Amino acid sequence: MAVIEQVYGFFIPSVTLIGIGASKAIPEKIKALGGSKPLIVTDKGIVKAGICKQITDLLDAAKMSYVVYDDTIPNPTDENVHSGVEVYKKNKCDSLITLGGGSSHDCGKGIGLVVANGGKIHDFEGVDKSTKPMPPYLAVNTTAGTASEMTRFCIITDLSRHVKMAIVDWRVTPNMAIDDPMLMVGMPPSLTAATGMDALTHAVEAYVSTIATPMTDSAAEKAIELIFKSLRKAVANGKDLSAREDMCFAQYLAGMAFNNASLGHVHAMAHQLGGFYDLPHGECNAILLPHVEKFNLIAKVERFAKMAQIMGENIEGLSPRKAAEKALDAIRELSSDVGIPAGLVELGKRYGKDVKAKDIETMTKNAQKDACGLTNPRCPSDKDVTAIYTAAL
């Protein structure tokens, strides 16, 4: 907590529905928000999997007009946003439904910002740059990881700079969020693992953030407990609805934590890997997490020791430092169990990307400018960030 004058905010959707069958409420809820012709922002994978049709069938049954924009890509870009804005305006839409994981939600948030405020998405990079409210906005989640369905964060890749723009704006917080485990049962194990480790990263970074509060602590602690209880089960059997529901709550709680306590250098560094190589965000976070937290450990020894206990580690009789190191061991073991690659080079090969040591200097400079690093518990030099990237290769 602060020892000088400090005012803390807490941001969250006005209403959230979590549980099996929650998605059935979509038509009535978008109407309640004032929408009559929503733009559904999603991606082709969601369409191919039949998940989008599940939602449009509900809207059809309610005799509601809608338009589907399914050109969102992983690590959505400024071009994605601007083309979505054109579709929204051309079809005279009046509201937004985002359907998917973080990419769909981030793209939809970007579309809403530009529709409401004009200009280009680049104008909103930074904190609270918008001046007008978003259109009515309902976010429907299909992964258990990003928590973008309930946050004030929007991450968009600037193609000209090869940088992920961090947009943090209270106005992009969805009016309403829906997390239905039934929409997640078809997620492949690799995506379940990546999004689950993303949620763990959110919880851990928020827990050791310099602006953590009792409210964010309680959310982060429960998120960590649930992830260690159920992520392995969800990866092993995607139809385990109990594990899926646990992960719905876990990722949402982690979102509550980082939406208000912010993040740290894991995200600051992962954003560069996404912007530079177009690598998947969750797996970048998972690989970087133990390396960054090893660097952070001396700033928050007691916190890491408590985390180890929450993760189910036996810390009886251990010094605080040894107990804290148990948390890092537990993170590495979980990551390995769910199939996350051991390093960034291996991750790059998995996706046909060549992660090179020579690019680290540029990524380090960009990471040091990323807003997520502002609340990291320890202030790294350029040399420190370079060393972390190198160790994670």
Protein architecture, described:
The mean pLDDT is about 95. This protein has about 400 residues and is of the alpha/beta class. The strands form two sheets. Strands 1-9-6-4-2-3 form a six-stranded parallel beta sheet, sandwiched between helices. A three-stranded mixed beta sheet has the order 5-8-7. It has helices at about 25-30, 45-50, 50-60, 80-90, 100-115, 190-205, 215-235, 240-260, 265-275, 280-295, 300-310, 320-335, 345-350, 360-365, 380-390, and strands spanning about 15-20, 40-45, 65-70, 95-100, 125, 135-140, 155-160, 165-170, 175-180.
Poorly predicted ranges: none
Strand order of the largest sheet: 1-9-6-4-2-3
Characterize the main sheet: 6 strands, parallel
Shape: globular
The Rg value, from CA coordinates, equals 20 Å
User: How far apart are the first and last residues' alpha carbons, in Å?
Assistant: 35 Å
The sequence of SSEs as H and E is EHEHHEHEHEEEEEHHHHHHHHHH
Q: Give the proportion of residues in helices.
A: 40-55%
Proportion of residues in extended strands: 5-15%
Summing up helix and strand content along with how strands pair, one would put the structural category as: alpha/beta
Number of strands: 9
Helical stretch count?
A: 15
Q: What's the rounded overall pLDDT mean?
A: 95
